[in-house]
Sequence to fold (114 residues):
Amino acid sequence: MENCIFCKIIRGEIPSRKVFEDDQILVIEDITPQAPLHLLFLSKKHLVNCLDLTAADDGLIGYIHRKAGEMARQKGYAESGFRLVQNNGAGAGQSVFHIHFHLLAGREFAWPPG
Ligand code: 5GP
Ligand code: ZN
Fold:
């Protein structure tokens, strides 16, 4: 998508701190971290949020979930716990309308979230 900020990051038009990249996903550090570890798992395919998913995306979403767990373990947060969050719509806090998952770790997390 032409004017999507995450598509621009994926295309390298906006700089980011990359943690992992392959043909399906890009993992970057969040520019405004909300925890000691705050990574964003971006789908390389532009999808708005989970309302945009079709059955063709089932593998992609499962893959992101598995990679987030791997990353949390690799960063040392398997025991302490971590959050994997995906906001859908402005009313739920989505501010970038390109599907992404937040991996947050390294502090206490309240429930329910604000
Ligand atoms: P959302 O609010 O849509 O769930 O999450 C969007 C996230 O993207 C926010 O946590 C915000 O800090 C992050 N973000 C927005 N613009 C940029 C950017 O240009 N670079 C990076 N690395 N993160 C960004
Ligand atoms: Zn996009």
Summary: Residues 1, 4, 6-7, 46, 98 surround zinc ion (ligand 2) (CB under 6 Å).
